[in-house]
Amino acid sequence: MSNVLQPATEWELKSMIASLAERQIPVEVAGGGSKRTCGRPVAATAVLSTAMLRGITLYEPTELVMSARSGTPLSQVEVELASRGQMLPFEPIDLGPMLGQQAGQQTMGGVFGANLSGARRFVAGAARDHVLGIQAINGRGEQFKSGGRVMKNVTGIDVARGITGSWGTLAVLSEITFKVLPLPDDMTTLVYTGLTDELAAELMCIASGSPFEVSGAVHLTAALARRLKTGELAEEKKPVTALRIENFSKSVEYRKTRLKELLVAFGTPAELDLDPSLKFWNELRRFSVLPFGPTHVWRISTSPRNGPKLVAAIRRHVPVEVMYDWSGGLVWLETAASADAGAADVRRAVASFGGHATLIRAEDAVRREVQVFQPLTPAVARITQGLKAAFDPLGLLSPGRMYANL
Amino acid sequence: MSFIQLPKPDSSIVARRLEIVAVLEGLVQSGLVISDEDGRRAYETDALTAYKRMPLAVVLPATTQEVSLVLAYACANGIKVVARGAGTSLCGGALPGEDVIVVGVSKMNRVIEIDYESRTARVESGITNLAISKAVTPRNFFYAPDPSSQLACTLAGNLAMNSGGAHCLKYGVTTNNVLGVKMVLITGEIVEIGGAQLDAEGYDLLALIVGSEGQFGIITEATVRILPSAEGAKPMMIGFESAAKAAICVARIIASGIIPVAIEFMDKPAIEVCEAFAKAGYPLDVDALLIIEVEGSEEEIADRLAYIAGIANELSPKSIVVAANEDQAARIWKGRKSAFGAIGRLADYYCMDGTIPLGHLPHVLEQIAEICARHDLKVANIFHAGDGNLHPLIMYNANAPGEIEKAEMAGAEILKLCVAVGGCLTGEHGVGIEKRDLMTVQFTETDLNVQMRIKSVFDPSWLLNPAKVFPLDGRPAPAAIVSMQALPVDMLHPVAA
Description:
By secondary structure, chain A is an alpha+beta fold. Chain A has helices spanning 10-23, 74-83, 108-114, 121-124, 127-130, 159-163, 197-208, 222-225, 249-262, 274-285, 307-315, 343-353, 364-369, 378-391; strands spanning 3-5, 27-30, 46-49, 56-60, 65-69, 86-87, 131-138, 143-147, 171-179, 181-182, 186-193, 214-220, 240-247, 270-272, 296-301, 320-325, 330-335, 356-361. Chain A is globular, with a radius of gyration of 21 Å.
């Protein structure tokens, strides 16, 4: 990286953006850089990194709230939370290893800027659901806040939540305040093997619709399951479907028994107790089943019921390997490298079954030519452009990262 | 009349009333335009009854298409529009004006589709909050946000205000439980945002729309999450001699790693009124009462309640009562949910909604008592303690001259106090007209400009829900609506393009 701007204070960040605005110099907004190859290649020669804006500025465990500057490493936040028996409920995923980076480089700004949530999302909410407040600088060089530090707040437009997931294209976050929750006392994982995608989806939907608070429901096709590192799961050479139950120990035991009764038609599951469970869900967070390589990876969000149908529609045209998360509603799809990363087939399937697709991994040249984020309807595209103009009228912040003209 | 300024109606629009009514009658099915004075009177206020304005006309469209026609007409003629659900807003969010067309969504109240596998329901926005839960109860599902007005209030209003409720400590508020909406823009254009999936495809427009108080468009349909009901639930009541002890108890429960479904707080005046109303067996000899509910199987519930009782016992509570049976559990919640109504039978009240960091609770409650005493007003406190969302009910007599002004002054002081300790003006009721002029206490001019520019993206001519949310001074000049700009093709969906 040649031109890297690294403000160490919010004031420096504001001054830098103000002078970039004066000179109309666009920048690529980054945190730890783990997701730099995600999205379209940015049309900017300089990088504005928040990596030096570090530090946890508030932590009140009894109020379930923490504030951290945007460059604070996620790992630091998680260690601090764990020391008080708490966690980030949305279980942020780490795309770094999949994209050829080291694990554990993410910053809090990156976590909220990309709104990437892990397995617990479908019960606990996404990163965006845990945002309580932000401080940020927009492309006009204006310092602003939204939200605050309290759990319930409907004062004015929810800008804090609205710019979560905007990939640094609307404003540069300087500080984020978010909700945290207690770590569960205990955890167990039920593992079913050999199910087809359709049966696995059925199983996950039944489990997620039960009152037993399943907090993780994933299904891996056989090829991906073989890459698992936990226990003997890889050796079976069969698809793996896993359900997680978390609570206090007595409750985990009870819910496990009830769930097995409910799902008896799907066979007898293997059981992972606390330690192997932690290992299993942690390796999924880091995508051990989709290691760095030449293949292309899509992330498709749809309704859980339609997940396998959507994948089947793509599979009719190209061979794919799949990890279903969120009880079937989130599809991580691996395809062999091709000139358009299979975009035509993916987009057609998404149009039929609803949802949206994002090309997460492909070479720069492919991501420049193919639409990386989901194409928008005319009305939504107009609103999207309007928002960009409201926050960043000169188009200085990560231009082109999400859409070519944004 | 009280302090809040309402803009002067545009006399040129008011003068065209009959013509406007005639056009509206041509746009929607017969019988859906209310133009007579008695009929319109039902729409002149909401649950902030101190403010009343007779609207120009009321339209109750039966379809999204009709909403679209009405908005397109209003837009082309520069007529302001106020969207209305059930009119239960406590902050004047649905207050019309003399130059305003009220568009009520109450006729659009169908359940469109329920998908139990994906755990979503597609409904029309005029459906009541409780009707969503009722539609899915037979399969043991429910819709989580549960504002106290849930029997009457509509999903449309919940979406506008990002409503919460007693059980959002565990399940989140409206914004956490909505996946997609169909919305009509002021131009009449119909937009689909989100869908049945769990996250946004581009910018998170839904996050901006939910809680925008009818400023951005009129939502006619929504896809909401439905959740499997717990096997069972049971409340317990813990009485303390002081609010400070109750606050410590809440903090200790949360620090111990338990998040109950709900933790509600009542002070002595609230307990007395609610007990007289619901006969729930609330202890009358305590100064602060916590209602704590946990969920699960019978055994899980017993286990958790015992654990919480253990924490409470270290603080020598004056009483601990676990609901003996379903009937008592229902009464405990009935008392809590009817609290506002019960107090309303004794006096007029002005309900505040600030949220504070929980650590400040004892101090803030003392200050609230002091502020109200200074204005010679009684106050009852009843609120969601788990998340610090206060609801001081300032009691006054609307017929006594000067009383409402006093109540409003006390209310403003309380809200300023909430902001001063690190909280906010409103946790779940919204800004409306009521807190509009206090926005500058919480936000800087830049903060508000950032918000108002977003408003201008959705509603450039500022015709939707006028005079709400943002202080009247400092608003941008309304822009003329530009016709659809040409869009770069590469952002567009190939099918749509």
